[in-house]
Write a structure and sequence with these properties.
Layout: E1 12-14, E2 20-22, H1 26-47, H2 51-71, H3 78-85, H4 92-106, H5 121-145, H6 152-171
Antiparallel strand pairs: 1-2
């Protein structure tokens, strides 16, 4: 089976469970921005000298895959998604885990004013990932404000992640 189906040549794409929507649909734009974030985290992971942080980044990328799947589900199929995949979804424990990492990192990083990206390659990638994360977070908020079903844990997760990325940037 080829990845090139040509079914999207008309500017549409499939959500989970088969509903076709425009590639410009807010739901598609939102999970696309989370995908951009995952790619940015891959750059961080590739350039991060600390293997512990690299492993944490990989786990976050795995969580983002689950988030994208949930975001790629139409409201009409939301219950169906959670029946099938609910245990894999980003839950409050994942938000709490990121919060705990933020608290741990804050003990070693003291805010001394704004910093400028580019002191190192890794720091620049972490700062880029942070801004990409904030863009994805704004997309989630806009999707929720448009009336879409969206669990609060998804927004909370990205909010904690952006804070963590800022702290990781200062470390690198």
């Amino acid at each position: 089976m080829s990845i090139s189906t040509k079914r999207g040549d008309d500017g549409s794409t499939c959500l989970l469970f088969g509903k076709r929507v425009s590639k410009a649909h807010p739901r598609v734009r939102t999970y696309g921005r989370v995908d951009e974030l995952s790619s940015a985290l891959g750059l961080c992971r590739a350039h991060c000298p600390d293997p512990t942080t690299g492993a944490q980044l990989l786990e976050i990328q795995k969580q983002l895959v689950q988030m994208m799947a949930e975001l790629a589900t139409d409201d009409a199929d939301y219950a169906r998604y959670h029946e099938k995949h609910g245990t894999q979804a980003v839950q409050s424990d994942a938000v709490e885990a990121l919060g705990a990492l933020v608290i741990a990192k804050e003990k070693n990083n003291h805010f001394e004013g704004w910093t400028y990206a580019g002191e190192s390659i890794a720091e620049a990638f972490f700062d880029q990932a942070r801004t990409t994360c904030r863009r994805a977070e704004r997309s989630l908020v806009a999707l929720k404000e448009s009336g879409a079903i969206l669990r609060p844990e998804l927004i909370q997760y990205l909010n904690r992640l952006a804070d963590l990325l800022w702290l990781w940037a200062k470390e690198n």
